[in-house]
Amino acid sequence: MIDLTQLVLLLVIVILTVLLVVVGVEVFFLLRDLRKTLGKIEKVFVDFGEIGDKLKNSLESLSEIKLNLKGLTKIISLFLRKRGKEEENE
How far, in Å, CA of 9 to CA of 53, rounded? Predict the structure, then answer.
């Protein structure tokens, strides 16, 4: 027959087993939620990368426009100088 010590030991083992199963299930759900969260964070980083690329392309376009305007102003100033010299010669 089971004496009191064996009964208490059996009861403690059963309670600890149930608690470990519950903790294991909670850890499983926690890791699953963590995986979903990391997926969303990755998507945010990808979106930031795309925004950065678009911003970089826009800045490069603005830089090209600035260079083109500088060239155009040089051409206009040379044309005006040449025209002014022609008027002086007449």
Answer: 65
- Alpha carbons 82 and 5: distance in angstroms, whole number: 113
* Higher-confidence position of 12 and 72: 12
Tokens of 82: 């040449």
Record the pTM. Answer: 0.54
> How far is it, in rounded angstroms, from Cα 77 to Cα 84?
10
Angle at 58 between CA 55 and CA 60, to 5 degrees: 110
Q: Please report how many Cα atoms fall inside a 13 Å half-sphere around the Cα of residue 45, on the Cβ side.
A: 6
| DSSP state at residue 90 | -
First to last CA, the chain: 132
